[in-house]
Amino acid sequence: MSAPPASASAPRPRAARPLSALEDTIAQRLVFAPVVQDWFTAAARMKRLHVDLGRLDIDLKKDPARVAAFQRAAAARSPFPLGTRFRIRGPWGAEQATLSAFDAYNGRIVATLEGAVPGDSLARVTDPLVAAAQRLPDGTPIAAAPGAAAPGADASDADASGVRCERSADPAFSARLTQLAQLVEDSLRTAEDQPIYPRLKAALKARRSVAAGCFGDARGVVIVTLYAGDYEWVRERVLLVGATSVKRATVRDLRFRAHEALHALDADGDGIDDLAARAWTPRGGGTVILKLSDGTRFERLASGFAWER
């Protein structure tokens, strides 16, 4: 059986350097993303923009010696070496950055970036802030960083359309999104489709979220989730809302059952906004970037910063 073809941006194999006993112990608890993976989730953590690269299955106990050993072990064992280049796309636009160091956050292996000037600036003052990180092939020329919007401004990369997206919604449209979210929740609560077990019926909750953006003809997204227990029973409705139109959308997100819209971003530079969201499943959750496909379907482009109970 032949091996699958490697990604064009997959790094070349490197000779592994010898590790100390502590470094080797930690290295055995590092679970990185596959070497062929090109799309990652970046987010504001610890007042900086970090890229999630995998899982850390050992407690560093905030011990400086263990943290330093982790950083050396990660640098030695990561399939994404120091110097790996990423194209970062967030709600502020697009920029290129370089993997400069490894860190740990809430059980995750994360990369700090050199050159992500607008992203790091926004990460200091914006929460939540999510961006897509696309790994670039070796030899990709360094592009000049585009002018960044001021913190809080809604400007998008204009790779495909040549037109920047104005994501700020006027009060009337914002009120319409909120009203639609309430109507959808009311509809879900009064529908015949309800939990059949008393334990779940007693624990029924709803979550409403909205995001303004440039989703093709639509200018906003509404997500309403009715759930019970630890997301054992979930019913979710997603709407794409235009100036005079409302249409149903679907979400395909593997194991995650419930979502909360955070903000819009053009994650892949095609000129159509995608969606950053929090996501949940029984005993776990994470951050996802959902790409809008075929005008009515959100599909996972990247996920990261997962957690489990």
Give an overview in words:
- By secondary structure, the chain is an alpha+beta fold.
- It has two domains: 21-135; 171-308, no CATH class.
- The chain is 17% helix and 41% strand.
- It is built from five helices and 15 strands.
- It has helices spanning 21-27, 64-77, 117-123, 171-190, 198-202; strands at residues 30-32, 39-45, 48-56, 85-90, 93-105, 108-114, 130-135, 204-215, 218-228, 233-241, 246-252, 258-265, 274-281, 284-293, 297-308.
- The strands form two sheets. An eight-stranded mixed β-sheet has the order 8-9-10-11-15-14-13-12. The protein has a six-stranded antiparallel beta barrel with strand order 2-3-6-5-4-7.
- A hairpin with a 2-residue loop joins β13 and β14.
- α1 crosses α2.
- The longest helix is centred in the middle third of the chain and has 20 residues, at 171-190.
- The radius of gyration is 21 Å and the shape is globular.
- The two termini are 38 Å apart.
- Residues 145-158 have low confidence and may be disordered.
